[in-house]
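pipeline: protein-struct stage 2 | run 1193 | aldehyde dehydrogenase (NAD(+))
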Amino acid sequence: MMDFLSSLKIQAENAGAATGQQWLKAGGEMISSYSPVDGKLIGSVKAADKQNYEEVIAKAQSAFLEWRSWPAPRRGEVVRQIGEALRAYKEPLGKLVSYEMGKSLQEGYGEVQEMIDICDFAVGLSRQLHGFTMHSERPGHRMYEQYHPLGLVGIISAFNFPVAVWSWNTMLAWVCGDVCIWKPSEKTPLCAIACQHIIAEVFAKNNVPEGVCGLVVGGREVGEWMSNDTRIPLVSATGSTRMGKAVGAALGARLGRALLELGGNNAIIISRDADIDIAIRGAVFGAVGTAGQRCTTTRRLIVHESVYDAVKSKLVAAYKQLVIGDPLNEKNHVGPLIDKDAVKMYLSAIEACKKEGGSFIVEGGVLEGAGFESGCYVKPAIAEAQPQYAIVQHETFAPILYLLKYSTMEEAIAIQNGVPQGLSSSIMTLNLREAEQFLSAAGSDCGIANVNIGTSGAEIGGAFGGEKETGGGRESGSDAWKAYMRRQTNTINYSTQLPLAQGIKFDI
C-alpha cells in the first residue's frame, strides 16, 4: 500500500490542490493523516489556500467551455477507461481506504467496487441523456425538452466513504458535460489524492481539457468558498445535518442548487412474522458495519413484543461473536472509529442514554492494550430504550443500537417515522400485507425502504438519498443525473404563420 502511495508521487508540498494533471503549490496549513487502525502517521498534505482555489475555479471555467461540446458518448468513453483503471488499482486503493478511514478491508474493496459500478452505469447513461417531445397546441409547431450541462459542480464528501460518494456525483456529472471541483474530508485526504492521480492518468491519454477534474484539500473554509461562489451552480454535500443546513442556507441565499445527503437515524422493524435469523444478520451488519459510521447504519431496532425476548437473546449472542481489531485483517468484523473525537461522542451518547433511563444489554467501552494503541477502538453496544429519548432521536456516528418494542404495525411505523431524519428503513416480515403497508404512502417516510434486507448496502442502480433532515437529494442511479443538468423547453415554428398560444390574437 505504501508502495502505491509512493508510485503516485504524493508529496506534501504539492498535494493540496490540482486542476487535473497539474498540481499547484499549496499555500495552506499542513494536514496530517493518522490512521485510526494503529495511530501511525500515513502522510501530511499541505492544504489549499484561496489563491489555489481561484486557480482551480478559473481552470474549471475554461475547461467547461470545451468539455460541454464533447459528444456525451465520447465523455462516456473516458469514464469507461476510468472504470478500467479503478479495476487495476482496486486492491491498493481499497487497502488505502481501509487504512486511512478504518473500515474493514472487504468494505474498502467494496467502496472501490462502487466506483467501478458507477462508471459502468455512467457509460450507459452517456447514450441515454434523453429529453421529451410533446404536441403543440399551435399548428405547424413542434415542442420538446432537452437537457444541457449545468457547468461547475462542487462536491463536498465525508470521511466515512472517502471515494465512493465522490464518484457517484463525479461520473454522472462528467458524462452530463459538467466539470467538478472536489473538497474531500480533511480526515481522509490521501484517498482523494490517490484518486486524483488515477484520474489524471486517464485524462492525459484522452486529451481531456485541464480543469475538468479539480481538487481542493482543506477544512471548513473550502466548503464555505464553494457554497458562496456564484460560479458554481450546484454544490453536492454529504455529511452531517448541521453542515448541510449551513451549505443549504448559503446556496439558497444566492439561489444556487444544493444536492444534500445528510444524516440518517435508520430503523429496522422486526415483525412477529419475520424470519428471525435473517433479521438478526441484517441488524448486526447494519449496526456494526463500518463501526456504525455509515449514514445508513442501523441505529434503532423496533421489535414486536411477541418476539422481543427471542430477538434480544439472539442479538446478545451474536454480539459475543464479533471480533474487533485491525480492519485489514479479514477475520475481524469491526474496526476503529475515525478518531478520538468520535470516541468522545460515542461515550457521551452512552452516558446520555443511561441518564434518560436506557439499560444496556451489551455494554460499550473503549478497548485498550495490544492492537488497540490508536485509542479509536470501541465495543458495539445495545441499549433497551424508549423512542422519545433525546439520544434516540439523535444520530450518533458510532456502533450503538437502540432496542425498542411495539405492539401494532401502525405503532411501529409511527416510531420508525418519528425522528427528524429520513434516509433508510427496513422491515423484516414474511407477511405480505405488512410489507405492502410499510411501502405504501402511509408507511415509511424515508428515501429508502427495504423488505427483508437491512438498512445499509444500497445498490448503484437506485437513486440514493432521503427526506426531512437527510436533505432531499438523490445521487447515483435512476434519474439522479438530471440534478447535474439544466432543462430547456424548445418550440420550433415551421409554418408560414405566427399563431400565439392560448388563442391570443395580436394583429398589426
